[in-house]
Amino acid sequence: MRHWNIKTITRASCLAASLAIGAAVPVYAEKVMNVIPHADLKNLDPIWTTAYISRNHGYMIYDTLFAMDDSFSPQPQMVDTWSTSEDGLTWTFVLRDGLKFHDGASVTGEDVVASLQRWGKRDGMGQQLFKVITSLEASSANTVTMKLSQPYGLVLESIGKISSNVPFIMPKRVAETDAFEQITDYTGSGPFKFESDQWVPGSKVVYTKFDGYVPRSEPASAASGGKKALVDKIVWQYFPDNTTAMNALMAGEIDYFESPAPDLAPLLAADPNITVEVNDPLGNIGFARFNHLLPPFDDVEVRRAAMMAMKQEDYLAAAIGDPQFWKTCYSVFPCGTPLANDVGSDIMATGSIDAAKAALAKTDYDGTPVLIMQPTDVPVLSAFSLVTAEKLRNAGFEVNVEAMDWSTLTSRRALRDPVGEGGWNMFHTWWIGADVIDPMAIAFSGDPDAGWFGWPTDAELEEARGQFSKATSLEEKQEIGRKVQERLWAIGASGELGQFFTPVAYRNNVKGLIKSPVQFFWNMSVE
Amino acid sequence: MENHVESSAFDIAWKNRNVSIGLSVLLIIIVLALIGPIFTKDPFSLSPMSRLKPPGDFGLFGTDQLGRDVFSRVVNGGRISLTVGLSVAVFAILVGTILGLIAGYVRALDSIIMRVMDGLMAIPAILLAIAMISLSGASLATVIAAIVIPEVPRVVRLVRSVVLTVREEPYVEAAISVGTPVHLIMHRHILPNTIAALIVQATYICGSAMLTEAILGFLGAGIPPEIPSWGNIMSEGRTFFQLTPWIIFFPGIALAVTVLSVNIVGDGLRDTLDPRIARSLK
Amino acid sequence: MFVYTIKRALMTIPVILVVALFVFLLLRLSPGDPAAVIAGDYATAEDVARIREKLGLSEPIVVQFASWVGALLQGDFGTSIFSSKPVTELIKQRLEPTLLLASCTIIFSVIVAVPLGTIAAFKAGSWTDRTVMLFSVGGFSVPVFVLGYILIYVFSMNLRILPVQGYKSPFEFGMIPFLRHMILPTLTLSVIYIALLARMTRASVIEVLEEDYIRTARAKGLSETKILMRHALRNAAVPIVTVIGLGIALLIGGVVVTESVYNIPGLGRLVLDAVLARDYPIIQGLILFFSLVYVLLNLLIDLAYTFFDPRIKY
Q: Is A375 near chain C, with CB under 8 Å?
């Protein structure tokens, strides 16, 4: 009897207590933004991989010394003031006050030095920069001094580069990890913290606001300016299925959908609660890459004949669909950027099977089949491959299409062997506009040893590219840009397939999107 | 004598309503798949400017995301799906029968073969297939091989159990003792006793192989996507499901009807054939 | 009895070894090079070689197998190449949704299929029987994902009564949200299982009904319900339970598809993502894990007979 009583009393008091607590809970509700990212975050080291999703993860939790603004010029981000010696050989950077890592430690010059060194081992632009760096030292707790062997025009463009690999600043102990091994400590100094025990690879990534982050006072502009965390928590939920993702957004289970298939845009836009817009002004640039080492594309005239068949409209309509999400662009630099021009573009703008056929007939093409690698798990590239195959066949080429997945393609495209032994003649890809904005892009290399897959050889091109790093004025840079483009078209380096834009879709309660080629989540709020 | 039993069994089978309906539907599908492609448009021809059009002006079943004609792709896809179904059935039965005969007849190899078969059965078939295909490269041949392998153990078990039972029969023991060559014993006594059960088993394998091919295609780990199999057509239509449901529904219906008729034929055959077989197959 | 248990348990060892060997060879003999994938676009040949070394890919294949099995025995399933997380941890993270989805499916299927199969058997040849059998054949003939899309289309998009996707843990969000998210995936996954079970139940019950003791029972004037409950179902239980066990392999295949359609963060999605990304350790670990589950479940079922079915003696 007594036992029963105690039990009842306990129960009653528990109930009362829970009611009281319930009533006492403050009205404050945690602000959460649920996001569908463009890909699954497979690894967490943005220096180790060039995957764009890992880069975006990097921007969540790390900060950078310099950052690109929306006109693509580098602005100080972690750096407060900096100076250059008169001979241009010594650079001094002073860090802002109050920079803290998520574990509470202050960001020091030593952290910066170690981070840049690790980045310089993996990133293409970093490797170039480190070729001219003679010493990189922390001259005091908040100062870094960089000494160069010769003046270099792209110091700030390199350490402020916006896309992969971004030189994120990590604590020294983390940055000392071998550049070919992944980091295991995810302490950064950015506006959000990574919650590693809530990470479910393949499904969910959780970030929480870092209260210790001090944003700059300037307004946000692309990657630069003040980064304010306006929500308490951001959850990335990866959806392998576009239809399911779209339905989840429409049902209100998700706030922000980073990359809906452009074909779904009209369905999403028809929902009054959803906004669909293009957030990346530069878009992506489609590439049809030739292998310059193997026949038939070891002959420049054959490559140029193939380019004449490539009508950009057909590629873009097949791969992207809705014309509001693409436009033709016959400059090697993205249309709408400072270096875009039209020198030598006629070849790319031809877009005629008949012209290609006539041009091919004048070459020594002997019917050697063209092997196109088709990455069937990437719909846009898969469509590009099929369009090229059809156009080349119509122009008189023999064509074999070999289907594979993207990861196989990436390992196979590195092979310089003949076609029968694993080699290839063509593959398609895209670069985000920001990655091919100037002649330094590896996509434009004319050096078969250090260059990008396909290995064009052109000394004139390399010389022009080399001058670019020394150019200081915009006019000078544009002049070199025209020269580089002229060479690229003349040697038929790659076919360019136009500019396309992937829309973002979000519920109307999401505010504060930053226009940028890279997806940032600071300054975004949910209401 | 066995031959006589067989033919009369099939006469009875044909009189079974399930078998006759199923076979008739199947026959229509096979004929369509065989001669259809002669009359339809080129299933590979792209027309980017008329993509994702509904059934009607741009073709009986509309167009897909590259502007290809869905009707001609579905008709051509029939060839692929039937090829996969039939080849898997033939190879699974062939390999399974050989291994089963060896396991049942050669005592020394019995336990090795059966342990390997047990191991294979323990690996979920779809997992095994997607792993094999994506690791060894997708092609029609690898897909067929990847679907055959998980089907083999069941056939081996079936054949082995028949061999073990038949071996014990006095007339077989007698045949062995007078030194009849192994291949004659197989031919005269063992195969005739398994053939009916194997045919029934083959129909089921054929049906499930076509489904598996579609699932593999849907998961992105099947036959190379440029080949218009039903699974691939549906997989490509996946993104546009709400926009253009016909890209999934037409091949989906084609697949379901085909597999259904194959399975109905299988059921009918099983019911009309020897009840002992029926019991071992359920 | 005890001896049988030991013997039966020992019999699983060669099976598991065969699975392990098969999984290992499958992945090692395939042409893709994980080192090149990891090294990325700008890596030199030396970088790739270093990574190969690091992953142990340059050792002789026998050594690789031995060290792999050695690690397995210590419970080390390896580490994911891409996420650097231990495979065991990844499995733990993903286990709950898959386990609950599979359990819901098995329970629901048994509740639906056993009565259906029994009724069909009892009225063998009637139109009820034919309908059940037609449904069962149909269940084997519709691709799982087409069914999933139809259900989403009808219940989530048009009627808007069930969520489109996702998984809500019952321990975190409570029972109601959990069940709401489970209904469509369970229905989708159950169809093929119900088809299998109903067929098996029907066949077993028909077989039992032909036995002499049922005829005797009938002759004694026992009511049909009593015959069914007391004799037929009880005796048909063994083959039915066996099929539940064997069907686990089918279920696992379905889980991969269903989780992908409904975006459930379970083991099926994990293995599919790993296969597409060529994350060797995860593929190996998961195939092995699924096979272990299958083998152990069937071992348990086998052993259970010896306790529950007096007719089975060893």
A: no
